[in-house]
Design brief:
Largest sheet: 7 strands, mixed
Distance between the termini: 33 Å
Shape: globular
Strand order of the largest sheet: 10-11-12-1-13-24-14
Length: about 600
Amino acid sequence: MPNCRIVNLLSAGILSCFFLNACQEDSESSPKVAEESLYPRAQTLYIGGFDWAPPTTFNPLDGDPNFPIDGNIRLMYESLFAYNNLNGKTEPMLAKSFVQTDSSIQVELDERARWSNGEKVSPEDVLYTFYMDSIFPTPRHGGWRYIDRIKTTGKNQLEFVMNKKEKNPLVLLSLISETSILPKSVFKPIVEASKTNGRYNYANVLTFKNDSSPVVSGPYNLDSYYPDKIVLKRVENYWGNAKHNGKAPAPLYIIHSLYTSNNLFNNAMTKGNLDISSIFMPRIWEKKRDDIRAWSLKEPYHYPGSIPTLFIATTTTPFNDIAFRRALAHAINFEKIKSVAVSNYTDAMRPGFILPFNQEARYFNEEDAKTYGYSYDLVKARKILSDAGYSWDNDGKILNKEGMPIRPFSLECPQGWTDWEDAIKVVAESFKELGISTNQRFVDYSEWEKDLRYGKFDLVMKTQTADLSAATPWGRFNQVMSSKDFKPVGEEAFSNPGRFTDPTADSLLELIPSLTDSTALKEAYRHLNRIFMEKIPVLPLMYRPSQFYQFSTKHWTNFPTEENPYAPPQALIIGASVKALWEIKPVQ
């Protein structure tokens, strides 16, 4: 519930403004003065970009909880390990170490780990967390297809035994690095109380909002929340401070400010009202005057970690024609997307679905890119279409193989995501040069997500993998090429929304996780990427960071950077980047 102190202070400011005829300047300053008194600026880190709407739930079993519960954020609930995308290592968090064998992953918990109520984080907490994911349709529910069982093997030890039929150590490593471990003492009573006629009722579990003094293992806990912000306060008895010589994280408060568009987030950043943002901010090199910068001082400025794509409705005409999809790949002006839509925050695009740098560079094959790849080439795109039986009318509009006009295609992305909207506009211009008409659809996030899941689109933009993990790049390919969980259009699908199928790709996706020989693994990825380039299941548009990471040094300094890479560039709240909260310093 809103803090009455804030409400009263705001009310006093409004009344004062009214009676004194003080204008806009006073009415704007009053809330800032009130907030400064509650949250001293030198002790408060403001972040933005991880939530867009007024908070409704902090239940970690919910499919879409609010900050900081969603995704791989490690402020309230920690995972056993944390993946470091700078070095590709799986680093300790709640656990101390792990040993991987051919059939299992054995984990030893850190005996110092404690919940905020002082109780020990136990193997039973881990077991019950994964048990809840097995019985409820949580975001981690699908991970159980790769687990046979989890068992305790000692006082602080557990063993994750792989499913022999779907053995996938890559996914299992990601699961133990991305699953929030929850206190059994809190959640078991809620789960048991949800039983109806002997069955657990997921809807009943979700009525628990977890917004009053949550029991957490992380360095911060929920303090309060409002329609425009979520306030976290430091846990003074946080067990993990022992890893930092007893020192506490620098910020006493972490506040996530909520805005409804990129522009509003960016305005707040420019004014110094945000310290860290994961929102696309154009022309970052010009923001030096506002004390703002990104990970790097040179192009592409941000650390690349994902490939935003246009998912294609591959089961519908004409997208079920590989030649048509390949022509579209040659029709996209990648360089214009790079310069106009994303402020050069991407390296030049290369064919395929592998990042040709950093940890993935060893899997990229230059020879295959030249032989099987694609590039912006309208002449080649027209030839591909012509050879496949397509033609054009006197106005340059494309005709299908029967000589009939092809309907306009929809190009869709969430409204307010300005970099994506600009990319869509460039794609529309590119396709127009090929004689293809499009309708640009910038829709509400919930509508976009629903269209994706049910396959109700022609071309829709999505970044298929939010975080780099131990399963990268396998996970990226799997989400766009695997037909294991294939659902026809109209049925809800949580992966492969384009409904692409290829038996050889399926076989390679099954093989890769079991490979331990580096040469065999490299060859398998080469084969998989070749299929991608030949059959075009999706249209890659750019390289993008897993999260944009830009920061302001008006109020805080010593952020991790390319020159000082002591933590990954993930907004100081994701996975292994949390360690930076002990290193940043307030400006004196």
